[in-house]
Structure formats: C-alpha cells, structure tokens
C-alpha cells in the first residue's frame, strides 16, 4: 500500500491525457487519483472569483491573471483540499497530466520522506526547466534535494506534506498571482520549497498536445509583448528579494 496519495490534475475534456498518464503510473506500480481540473473555459465569473482577488492582484503582481491562470491555481487548491479532507497519509504527490517519471519513483521515496517528515511545512518540486543554485540538503543514489536561492517556476510535479498543504491553502485563500509564482514566495507562505537535482520527471506537454490547464492561449501579440516587459522587471525584483531572504535563512543558527 502506498504511504502517500498520488493526484493527477486533468481536465474533463482531456480524457486521452488521463488515460496515458494513468497507464504510465500503473506501469510503475503507482495508483493515481484524478482531480477534475477547474476549466476556465466553462466557469462563470463568480466561480473564478471565489479565491482570485483583483485587489490582491494589483498589490502583488504586474498584470491581471488570465482565466486559464486562475483555473490552474484553483485546480491546485482543489488537489490540496482533497488531500487534507480525504486522506490521513503524511504527504501527497501532485502531478499535472503532461509528465512522466524518468525512473521508477520508488527509488526516491526515502528522500521524500526524509525532508517531508515532521510538522514543518515542506514541498519538494520534482522538475525544473533551468539549472538552480543553492544549498544541498540530502543526496543519495545519484539524486540530490536542494534548497534553491530562487524557487523555479512550474507546477508540473511536486510532493507536499500535510503541514505544507495546509499552509499553502491558508496563505492563498485569496490569491493574485499564478500558482507557480505564489510558490516562489516561500518567506510569505511559510513552506520550505525544495527541488530535486536532476529532475525526477519529464515534461512531455508537446507530445500530448501542449499545456491546457494554464498558459498563454488566447493572448494577443500586443498583450504578450506588454506582459513580457513587465514580467522581466517583476522577475528581477523577485530574484533580489528571494536572495535576501535566502541569505537571512542561511545565517540562522539551528536550535
């Protein structure tokens, strides 16, 4: 029996993607549970505004979120809520439906347990697009877990403990930025966000038809250009703030 829950976020209209990832996970002897993703294309304004706050958005992010970005955040909230409500297991793996494990994940579970045990809110991200720098926490069997200076973007695959899930739900009852950007702000939500090196999963969105939970679909060229200019400035500020908090964290003496 698995000592963790495994959730896959999947849109109802993407049945083939669910069938593919379910088959992949069953092949490596993991039993997934499907989380019906919040489909922004099918949601009314009130549903999207349940946790998304325009006031918070204006204070914390550089542009209003697109409906797909709101739906993506709500989908990840739904997975966290399902974990806390329906399970008493110590941690959960939360995947989007366009990934696959590189190796059998059973070889990594001891690492996950080591950094996620106890009552400290924590999350381990299993994928990053770019190299990271930071402090190595543990290493075994050729795989390390790092505490990054800047948490990488993306919510393709992560493992979170119960305290971490609750802290994230509490911190983002009202949100104003994309979910992966929100996770970067660890000094605000109080969850230690760690990253595996090398990646433990592959992102295969282009193989299965592209991302369809969040992203830039439907944006005009002008909107994208304006967004990218503001994004660059936002990321620079975030990098500097994150580095400052990382430095303070590193200087703290253990109890």
What global shape is seen? globular
Main beta sheet strand tally, sense and closure: 8 strands, mixed
The radius of gyration over CA amounts to: 18 Å
Got a strand count?
A: 10
Low-confidence stretches: none
The chain-level mean pLDDT equals 92
Derived structural class: alpha/beta
The helix content, as a percent range, equals 40-55%
* Proportion of strand residues: 15-25%
Key words describing this protein structure:
single chain, 255 residues, alpha/beta, eight-stranded mixed beta sheet, two-stranded antiparallel sheet, 20% strand, globular
Task: Summarize this entry quickly.
With about 260 residues, the chain is of the alpha/beta class. It contains 9 helices and 10 strands. Strand 6 and strand 7 form a beta hairpin.
Kindly describe this structure.
The protein has 255 residues and is of the alpha/beta class. The protein is built from nine helices and ten strands. Strands 2-1-3-8-5-9-7-6 form an eight-stranded mixed β-sheet, sandwiched between helices. Strands 4-10 form a two-stranded antiparallel ribbon. Strand 6 (134-140) and strand 7 form a beta hairpin. Helix 4 (67-86) crosses helix 6. The radius of gyration is 18 Å and the shape is globular.
């Amino acid at each position: 029996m698995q000592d963790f829950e495994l959730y896959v976020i999947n849109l109802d209209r993407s049945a083939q993607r669910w069938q593919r990832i379910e088959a992949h996970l069953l092949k490596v002897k993991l039993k997934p549970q499907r989380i019906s993703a919040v489909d922004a294309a099918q949601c009314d304004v009130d549903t999207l505004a349940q946790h998304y706050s325009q006031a918070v958005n204006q204070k914390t992010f550089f542009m209003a979120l697109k409906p797909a970005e709101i739906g993506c955040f709500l989908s990840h909230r739904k997975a966290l809520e399902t974990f806390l409500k329906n399970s008493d297991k110590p941690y959960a793996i939360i995947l989007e439906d366009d990934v696959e494990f590189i190796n059998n994940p059973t070889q990594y579970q001891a690492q996950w347990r080591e950094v996620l045990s106890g009552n400290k809110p924590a999350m381990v991200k299993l994928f990053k697009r770019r190299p990271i720098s930071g402090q190595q926490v543990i290493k075994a069997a050729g795989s390390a877990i790092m505490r990054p200076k800047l948490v990488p973007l993306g919510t393709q695959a992560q493992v979170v403990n119960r305290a971490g899930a609750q802290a994230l739900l509490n911190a983002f009852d009202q949100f104003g930025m994309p979910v992966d950007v929100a996770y970067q702000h660890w000094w605000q939500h109080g969850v230690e966000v760690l990253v595996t090196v090398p990646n433990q999963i592959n992102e295969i969105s282009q193989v299965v038809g592209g991302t369809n939970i969040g992203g830039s679909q439907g944006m005009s060229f002008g909107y994208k250009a304006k967004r990218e200019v503001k994004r660059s400035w936002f990321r620079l500020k975030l990098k500097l703030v994150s580095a400052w908090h990382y430095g303070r964290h590193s200087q703290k003496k253990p109890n």
